[in-house]
Design a protein that fits this description.
The chain is mainly α. It is built from nine helices and three strands; from the N terminus they run αααααααβββαα.
Length: 260
C-alpha cells in the first residue's frame, strides 16, 4: 500500500487515523460517519504502541529489537501479511528483507507480532511479554504453521449446529441479563480470539470491544473474517478447512452481546 504519509516515529497521533483506517480496514475518504465505530480501536492502537516501551529499562523494551520504525513500515508489514496468509513465518521474513535489510529474526518476528496485534486484534506475543495485557490470553505464532492455519486454530468450529431460528437470541438475552440472572461476570479483553470465551469455574465471560459492535459491517471483525474466508492457492492451505471458520467468526458478529 502506498500513502502520502511521511514516515514518522512509531507513535499514535489523531491525524494518523485516516491512514490507519485505510491501511487496516479499507476505509475510503471521506469516512467521517464511520470514525466513531473505531473510537475504542484507536485507544487500543495507542496503548499497544505505549506497551512497546514498557519495562524496567530501555534494554528491556520491545523497541530494542524491532524492525518497524514508523507507521509506513507497519502498513507495509500488514500488506505483506494480508497477501501471504498461506505462507509460513520464515517465508514472510524473507519477503521483508528488502524493506528492513536485517537478518535479525527476533526483530522481524517482533514486528510481525505487533502488526498482527494491531491489524487483527489478536494478542500475538512472545513469552517474555505475555503478561503486558492483563486479561488477554497471549498466543505465539511459530515457524511451522502458515499464518492462515495459525489464525484458524484460534477460532475452532463450534460443536453446536443451530438452525437459523434457534441461533437468534431473544431480545432480553443481553450482557446485563447474564450478569443479573445467570450470575456471570463480564470481563473485558483486548484480544478478539478471547471474545465470548466462558470460564465456567469462575463464572466469567470474556468480551472484546471488537466483537460487541452492533454494526453488521463491523470493520474490526472484517479483517479476521476476510483473512479466514478468502481463497489462497498456496499448497499449505487446506481450502475445505477455511470457510467454516470464517462463518464461525462472522457468527460472533451476528450474535454479539448487547446491552452493555
Amino acid at each position: 500500500m502506498t500513502t502520502d504519509l511521511t514516515p514518522t516515529e512509531l507513535t499514535y497521533r489523531p491525524d494518523l487515523r485516516i491512514h490507519i483506517a485505510q491501511a487496516f480496514f479499507g476505509f475510503t475518504v471521506p469516512f467521517t460517519e464511520r470514525i466513531y465505530a473505531l473510537k475504542q480501536y484507536f485507544i487500543y492502537f495507542s496503548d499497544e504502541l505505549k506497551l512497546l516501551r514498557t519495562g524496567i529499562s530501555r534494554e528491556s523494551w520491545q523497541t530494542k529489537d524491532l524492525a518497524i520504525h514508523n507507521c509506513e513500515d507497519l502498513f507495509h508489514v500488514v500488506d505483506i501479511l494480508r497477501t501471504s496468509k498461506g505462507h509460513r513465518r520464515p517465508e514472510i521474513r524473507q519477503k521483508l528483507l528488502s524493506r528492513f535489510g536485517t537478518t535479525n529474526d527476533l526483530a522481524i518476528n517482533r514486528s510481525l507480532n505487533l502488526a498482527l496485534r494491531l491489524w487483527l486484534m489478536i494478542n500475538v506475543q512472545e513469552p517474555a511479554f505475555a503478561g503486558l495485557r492483563h486479561g488477554a490470553t497471549s498466543v505465539e505464532w511459530d515457524d511451522e504453521r502458515p499464518l492462515l492455519v495459525f489464525v484458524e486454530s484460534l477460532f475452532p468450529p463450534s460443536r453446536w449446529s443451530p438452525t437459523a431460528q434457534s441461533s437468534r437470541f431473544a431480545p432480553h438475552f443481553t450482557a446485563a441479563f447474564m450478569q443479573r440472572v445467570c450470575g456471570l461476570n463480564i470481563e473485558w479483553t483486548t484480544s478478539l480470539h478471547d471474545h465470548l470465551r466462558l470460564d465456567s469455574v469462575r463464572k466469567a465471560l470474556k468480551a472484546s470491544f471488537a466483537g460487541t459492535s452492533s454494526a453488521r459491517d463491523n470493520p474490526l471483525l472484517g479483517s479476521a473474517v476476510s483473512l479466514l474466508g478468502q481463497q489462497d492457492d498456496h499448497p499449505s492451505c487446506e481450502r475445505k478447512a477455511r470457510f467454516p471458520r470464517a462463518r464461525a467468526l462472522r457468527g460472533h458478529q451476528e450474535s454479539h452481546l448487547v446491552g452493555f
